[in-house]
Specification:
- By secondary structure, the chain is of the alpha/beta class.
- It has helices at 11-27, 39-43, 60-83, 95-107, 128-134, 146-151, 162-166, 173-180, 197-217, 230-240, 263-270, 280-287, 300-309, 322-327, 342-354, 356-373, 377-391; strands at 3-8, 32-37, 47-51, 88-92, 112-115, 137-140, 156-158, 188-192, 222-227, 248-252, 273-277, 292-296, 334-336.
- It has a 7-stranded parallel β-sheet with strand order 3-2-1-4-5-6-7, with helices on both faces. A 6-stranded parallel β-sheet has the order 10-9-8-11-12-13, sandwiched between helices.
- Helix 9 (197-217) crosses helix 10.
């Protein structure tokens, strides 16, 4: 029986890891998994040592507040794996935590796999040196990443994106609306302001003000908002009292009865368009073929810090949203920082909701990208992980 250490740091990584664990079980039914993860990994048999919520922080302020817990989690996990080495360690996303852990384990002769590479193609390319020292094999999601690692002499395999298999090529909007109790002929906008506390605080007020303006012109507009957990829901509800909107359907993991897929997917599949924070959700929205407006806002302190870091060696892309990066084009609008005003967000979102010709063009581009990502990710990733485990 092979022993596999795994760490996922946030809900999107937990979902990806759960799919990979399914692939490993198909090859090694008795494989044992231990480490840090969420409900999807636990459903596949993960022996959970620490709460994944400890690592679900963003921005240096949040990290500083959570630092004592993060350090206990890091040293506790590293100590257990050093005392009883796994046959292979797999870090899923969360590069700031996982690459440090992988470097420590790699020095002890434990094969290390990083599944989902940090976005070195976007900024801070100098992280490639840390990756070379820490990682035995990179598993990347996107074809354009392979030549980057090959050029740097780092073993790499593109496994596609597991979500491209799990999200249908042709979504069923009518069925999703029936599950959520939404009228088939309604106009529906999904709001996805992020899964982190800082994202809710900075983006949700702008998104709600955008909806207020939209509903002045389109009073019947329906709004669906998926919440990743009870804490984010509490924070969002507090903001709703300041920025009330009509026809709002709040979908929470705790109260939502649909269990066939994540609540965010239910919202995306049911919606005509999305207003969404930059991140994994934009990829999911692309796979559901929905027109979207991508936005993001950093705190002033975080913005200054990233501006300083942006001077470090890195390749540049003019896009931040994954749909645009994959298309190498501004297929959907990106309104970031000072551009993310309710007025500008309203104008762009109105186009996404009501310009059907444009929405059809967007969907056509997204179908092409979906097909390029639709590999057998669980099998490809599992084969490489199991190969390294047996090689040790």
């Amino acid at each position: 029986m092979i022993q596999i250490g795994m760490v996922a740091g946030e809900p999107s990584g937990d979902l990806l890891a759960g799919r990979i664990m399914q692939g490993i079980h198909a090859l090694e039914p008795q494989a044992h998994f231990s480490g840090i993860g969420g409900p999807y990994m636990q459903a596949e048999g993960l022996e959970t040592w620490y709460s994944m919520d400890t690592l679900s922080v963003f921005g240096y302020t949040d990290v500083f507040r959570a630092l004592p817990k993060i350090l206990r989690t890091y040293y506790g996990s590293a100590g257990r794996w050093q005392a009883q080495p796994p046959d292979v360690f797999v870090g899923i996303d969360a590069p700031d935590f996982n690459l440090r852990l992988e470097a420590k384990l790699h020095k002890r002769g434990i094969p290390t796999v990083q599944f989902v590479g940090p976005s070195i193609w976007a900024w801070r390319y100098e992280r490639i040196h840390k990756i070379r020292q820490a990682v035995s094999h990179m598993l990347v999601l996107f074809p354009f990443e392979v030549p980057i690692y090959e050029k740097e002499g780092i073993p790499v395999t593109c496994v596609g994106h597991p979500l491209a298999q799990n999200i249908p090529l042709v979504p069923n909007k009518a069925a999703a609306r029936q599950r959520l109790g939404l009228a088939e002929n309604a106009k529906v906008l999904a709001l996805l302001p992020g899964s982190r506390r800082s994202e809710i605080a900075l983006l949700a007020p702008r998104f709600l003000q955008t909806v207020q303006r939209l509903q002045q012109a389109h009073p019947d507009l329906q709004i669906v908002v998926p919440m990743v957990n009870a804490q984010r829901e509490k924070e969002f509800r507090a903001l709703l009292s300041q920025y009330p909107v009509s026809h709002l359907h709040l979908l929470s993991t705790a109260t939502h009865q649909v269990r066939t897929q994540p609540v965010a997917w239910e919202a995306m599949e049911a919606a005509d368009a999305l207003l969404v924070a930059s991140g994994t959700a934009t990829l999911e929205a692309m796979l559901f073929k929905r027109p979207m407006v991508i936005s993001y806002v950093l705190s002033p302190w975080m913005r200054r810090l990233m501006a300083w870091q942006s001077g470090l060696s890195r390749p540049l892309t003019p896009w931040v949203g994954l749909p645009n990066i994959l298309a190498q084009d501004f297929v959907v609008p990106e309104l970031l920082q000072d551009e993310a005003t309710p007025e500008k967000l309203m104008k762009a979102t109105e186009k996404a909701l009501f310009d059907q010709a444009w929405a059809d063009q967007v969907a056509e581009r997204f179908v092409q990208i979906h097909q390029s990502l639709c590999l057998d990710t669980p099998r490809l990733a599992a084969e490489k992980i199991v190969e390294l485990a047996h090689g040790r």
